Amino acid sequence: QVQLVESGGGLVQAGGSLRLSCAASGNLFSINAMGWYRQAPGKQRELVAAIISGGTTNYADSVKGRFTISRDNAKNTLYLQMNSLKPEDTAVYYCNLMSDLYNRAYWGQGTQVTVSS
User: Fold this and answer.
1) Checking DSSP bridges between strand 91-99 and strand 31-39, what pairing results, if any?
2) pLDDT tens by residue, 6-27
């Protein structure tokens, strides 16, 4: 199976930056995609950014130009660099991994990001 552990969340002022990390462990063979989702209070979980196995990246329109997703295969770690943060970016951020081997999605426990105005 697969385990995901996020880190890097916290409190930051608007305009600031944070970098989230997601350390993956377990059987990481045949990963279809990895990504970051977020869920704000009272809202549905939404995709923030994803990186497909071939390296293609996708971003939500609301974060394009401000957030960058990357993956270090040697460290089995996924990153989300978040710049120019806005109060509306406040949410719990979750790491996600889509496994073709196990034909299912895995989720981390989430990390809180709070942006003050």
Assistant:
1) antiparallel
2) 999 999 999 999 999 999 999 8
